[in-house]
């Protein structure tokens, strides 16, 4: 860079300008959102200033306001995380078992089953929604969290299995062989040898599943009909239908609060996310 | 006896993948197959409602129904607008980040936040606030002397607005590109520079070929995603105006879960599946013409 002198410096400066510009485009909407929750509805649509003219806390006063007389934001968020945490635990457990099976053992049909598993990565969920709904209706599981949570117990999110298999392939087998000589069976080996080494990848699965299932909208929209059981994603859509045009500050405040747990987790674990996404892709 | 024991011992790994095998059979294969069956029926999910007709009528209906064909067309427009824009933008930013830049981590994190949160209802709500006629986007445009359009009132612009929401989430594609770019050995660039190749030529002849595997991966995953987009149009535009943003997934949702016409919904879902499958198949088949895997190149 130094050798190229002035031209190099201009290029570097240009790069920073572009990067900062893109950064502003990425973050400004979110920053605007934070301040908008402290503005009156009139100010949100009347002024382009970021800073509120007059701090208005009206939006936050209605956090406990119940919609349809049954559900408020904290209740809806509690519903969300009931589902999300169960789903995360189920996913990590089932995906780890499956990945261990695929990465460390040979059995009849191994190759075929692995190919089948990979191909389901490309199977659109949209195709499965209607028949799954019919199935859960027959099983009497409608209007419960089971249709959303239960499949996770069976490693249906194959993306995570794939991610763990990729990670396991990079772990040398010597430790496991030593454990086998010491008389561990394969399950004990999984618990005592594999899991500790695999834990970074397991954490990364847990975090991604946390984010994705917190964002999930279609699942609860289809399956949950009792208002009191609805999660935050559906709750916000409900509020938008009743309040849009009249109280944007309130809907934005609710949205921001609903995002807050995900944002906090992202900031604490950003490295895991960024590295996880490249680990899960095809490494060749 | 001994034989069975040996058989079990040799296939112990199967026990570990058993949860997935069950899950695959119950939650993927069976629904997949049964939706194929339903697509040839007039099945309506209500108490006591049975199938009364079998045949191709759902498919016939689809290809003669104006609204459905329009949704099909709109979905293609959406996908072919969103995916290239998103990938080009992701590649462009990743390329800049791949140079010696201070604070790469900071930029990467900032760019990645929309990808993590962007699929949520909360962000869709934010998006519709931003793009209101009197919203902040038009406010800023007005401040520089441009009369902002009615983003959600015009069909083309509404589609573009929900497309932008996806492009804004370019972070995960970018992170994958960036990892690939960082994997290119620097000596390749150095020897090309000695041979007198300019930066544009180096980008076209070295960079792009070497990251084709990640271009391929991003292309296929983003395409599959784009054809299933639901939250954006459902929340921001409600499919409107004048059905300009009614993607096929919205129609499937309406048929299946508002009218409980499971037969018709399944037929539409299968048409979507065939389209996505065909596009992925084309991508996979074309791989050998343009995707270079490192182990082939190195030798």
The CATH architecture assignment of chain B turns out to be Orthogonal Bundle
Find the CATH topology of chain B. MetI-like fold
Q: What is the overall silhouette of chain A?
A: globular
Query: What number is the mean pLDDT of chain B?
Result: 88
List low-pLDDT spans of chain A: none
CATH superfamily of the largest domain in chain A: MetI-like
Biggest sheet architecture of chain B:
none
SSE diagram, text form:
The complex is a heterodimer of chains A (284) and B (299).
Chain A lengths: L4 H32 L4 H6 L11 H4 L11 H32 L5 H10 L5 H14 L7 H4 L8 H12 L4 H8 L4 H30 L2 H6 L8 H12 L4 H21 L1 H11 L4
Chain B lengths: L1 H9 L1 H27 L18 H8 L1 H32 L6 H14 L3 H10 L5 H8 L11 H13 L3 H12 L3 H9 L4 H12 L1 H15 L4 H7 L10 H11 L3 H29 L3 H5 L1
Give structural notes.
The complex is a heterodimer of chains A (284) and B (299). With 284 residues, chain A is an all-alpha fold. Chain A has two domains: 5-61; 73-280, MetI-like fold (Orthogonal Bundle). Chain A has 14 helices and no strands. In chain A, helix 4 packs antiparallel against helix 10, helix 8 crosses helix 10 (186-215) and helix 9 (174-181) crosses helix 10. Chain A is globular, with a radius of gyration of 24 Å. With 299 residues, chain B is an all-alpha fold. Chain B has 16 helices and no strands. Chain B is globular. Chains A and B meet through helix 1, helix 2, helix 4, helix 5 and helix 6 of A and helix 2, helix 4, helix 5, helix 6 and helix 7 of B.
